[in-house]
Amino acid sequence: MSETMGIKISKDLKEEMVKFEVNWSEYIRESIDEKLKELRRKKIAEHLDSIRKKTAGKNISMAKEIIEWRRKH
Questions:
Q1: What would the mean pLDDT of 27-55 be, rounded to a whole number?
Q2: Are 51 and 65 a contacting pair, CB within 8 Å?
Q3: What are the distances in angstroms from CA 66 to CA 18, 25, 37, 40?
């Protein structure tokens, strides 16, 4: 299922965009997808860092911690 999102841009920007043969809708979709991937990776890395801090010096299986975290999210 798809959703529609509208944005406002300046007239000058629109005129400049028209000069180039770019599928701007596709470009924006891909850019949003890449940003979401980046944000997901950052969230996972931050969570792993928090686990490392909690488990420093303890005998805890990181694999089990990660599996449990994935189940919750």
A1: 93
A2: yes
A3: 47, 36, 18, 15
